[in-house]
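anyone seen this seq b4? input:
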Amino acid sequence: MNSILLQKRKVGIDAPPFIIAEMSGNHNQSLNRAIQIVEAAAKAGAHALKLQTYTADTMTLNLSRSDFVISGDRQWKDQSLYQLYQKACTPWEWHEPIFKRCRELGMLAFSSPFDETAVDFLEQLNVPCYKIASFENTDLPLIKRVAQTGKPMIISTGLASAAEVDEAVRAAKAEGCHDLILLKCTSTYPASPEHTNIRTIPHMKDLFQCQVGLSDHTLGTGAAVASVALGATVIEKHFTLSRADGGVDAAFSMEPDEFKSLVDETKRAWQALGEITYGPTKSEVSSQKYRRSLYVVKDMKKGETFSKSNVKAIRPGYGLPPKYLEILIGKTAGQTIKAGTPLSWDLLS
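predicted toks r here
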């Protein structure tokens, strides 16, 4: 669970959350739009941009039988898998210019490979790390091939049982992966907060002894911010220039202003975690004078008795703490005391 270096950027609980913008198919088959997405993600503060590396032919078969057609209430209903992946894929020849623009803007650039040919291709581009998508987290041969690169690996755990996550982790480590991050994920698009179950994050961290983050398909920033409070070190969100422009993942993707809010608010959540501490912090010391304390509120003569009519707990805090009021009541003044004098022990006779 130690910090991981992705190139020169530290990822871990002692660093701000590592925020990944997932482009997916939101480029709408336009390289120019893809570059615009890169630039907007960098401006919004993303630390990395992620692609998906596949072709329709490496994902499925070009068949229209019911097995190969999307059903249910998904937004892609009645499309064949082949048709969807044709629309959503990022042409492999685009990867190099996209990655180059990311590096120019100070972002890491990497991808999710979906078969071994994609790993071989991405190795030629010298990617700094790899991401295994949720639907591939049971593809142990793919996980082993990625692990053999020796590079950090991020695995989304959507759909996976604890036993399946364990198999993936064991496969990765057995083939040489030393830097592994798991992402809690709910594989619905969009995901609802009540099905996100981010309390799993600290449990997953303890169970698998590695860093854990969130691959978040919910709308808004609430789940991501809360996950940071539970120990998430990585947040991944789909990113688009505008949901109104459409695209295969646009409906559950963040626009630039929303993404900037995600970056800012998750960093604030991380900063707020701090450490276990009691008593005033350095920044609070100067505020102590505004606590209540015991003051003489009426002029008193020497020998006069302290009572609740001439001593009160008021602000500021230069007098004795209010907890001593009952002890003081009935004692006598050792000198003349003006109203507005903070009480101290040397004023008693």
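The chain has a mean pLDDT of 96. The longest strand covers residues 48-53. kinda curious what u guys think
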